Amino acid sequence: MRNIVIALFVYMCSVQLCSAIDVGQVERERVSRRDSVLALVTGAAVPSDSLFITDFGAKGDGTKDCKRAFDRAMKAASKLGGARIIVPAGTYLVKGPIHFVSNVCLDIRKGATIKFDPAPELYLPMVETSWEGTFLWNYSPFIYGKDLHDVAIVGEGTIDGNASTTFSTWKPKQKAGQARSREMNHGGVPVDGRKFGDGWWLRPQLIQFYGCRNVTLEGVFITNSPFWCVHLLKSENIICRGLRYDAKLVNNDGIDPECSRNILIEDIEFNNGDDNVAIKSGRDNDGWTFGAPSENIVIRRCRFKGLHAVVIGSEMSAGVRNVFVEDCTFGGYCKRGIYIKTNPDRGGFVTDLYVKDCEFGDVEDLFYATSMYAGEGLDNDKFTRVGNIYVDGLHCRKATGAGLVLQGTEAEPIRNVLFSNVEIGEVKNAVSFDNTVGVEISDCHIGGRAGVPSQAK
Fold first, then answer.
1. Spatial CA neighbour of 304 closest among 279, 341, 267, 340
2. What stretches of 97-197 show up as alpha helix (H) in DSSP?
3. Beta bridge partners of residue 423, listed in sequence order
4. Per-residue pLDDT tens for 416-425?
5. What pTM was computed for the model?
6. Tens digit of pLDDT for each residue in 365-388?
């Protein structure tokens, strides 16, 4: 009997050794897969013809309504087969949305500001859009494009949503509209029957490209958004580079890729009132029915400041995979560094997340993955598969809440996770793992390094 026990122990040890994650192999795979994604991302092709917005009746005096000038410029660009629309220095008041056409680069030059009028009625009639992961018809985003190709917004100028006096005040009034949208989602109501707009208090996004391919957003300064700042919905081949934010109104997420793929987010200076990057793929039934996975997303060399730095979820029912976060740092406080949030309403999956060499200052939680977000859906059975998470080089000065948190469920544990080279100076709760399988920790110092052991006197 003793020999059987010893043999079983040796066998179990060999299984543990064989199943260990090879850190070197993970790193080689990370680089290869990341580079394969980068090879797919080119962004928009920029037209050679140029048009000046001032030639279409716009004045940068901050008082003349330039809405018709932008409409005329877009129409002229379309007739040319594409153009760069140049906005020179000045403040251009726009009373209503700017609707893009294909093959247009909106070039907002240094010293130029596009300032939107905040009156809600100006953003009607409704357009087909999405709100918190549910597809519906609602107020037009301030800058909007659907089913287009090769669209760009570039320059050193400013996009000012100017939404503090109207849309920013709507969140306390949105509950009925929010609940109605979710009922329609869960009930499978056709999207054309989901009409919101006036009286439902669902805020539009500042910039939304929906069903677009070949998109570039580069350089501009973004402020005072009515809701999410940049919403990339069911789109692909996207570059977001060098954007700058001071967007601290309610739910001013920085960049929300949703059901989108092949995306490069780099060199962004975030300063947001909500999540900096929030990766989504539709909510519940709409994610499963109309959505597509968000996948192949590289986030690098960004400076984070706001609520959470990089979030996956909670609207992620179509799944999220192949996300690379690397060489990022902080420009100020973030509540959480990396945050995966889902619950048994969602289904879907989160897999193949690679975090490499990222640093934060003071946070509440450094890395947090939960399958019980907001305590919702706990009586349901749409469990999310979360796994294949590789963290190598994640640092913060202090975590007032927790260092590393994994919260799976009994039905669907979080699987196959590696934490390597995690450094946390001060922490209240170092590690909290529930319902996990195959978690490894290597070369980590949580709460400081132990140093040389003391000697007996």
1. 267
2. 175-187
3. 395, 445
4. 999 999 999 9
5. 0.95
6. 999 999 999 887 778 899 999 999
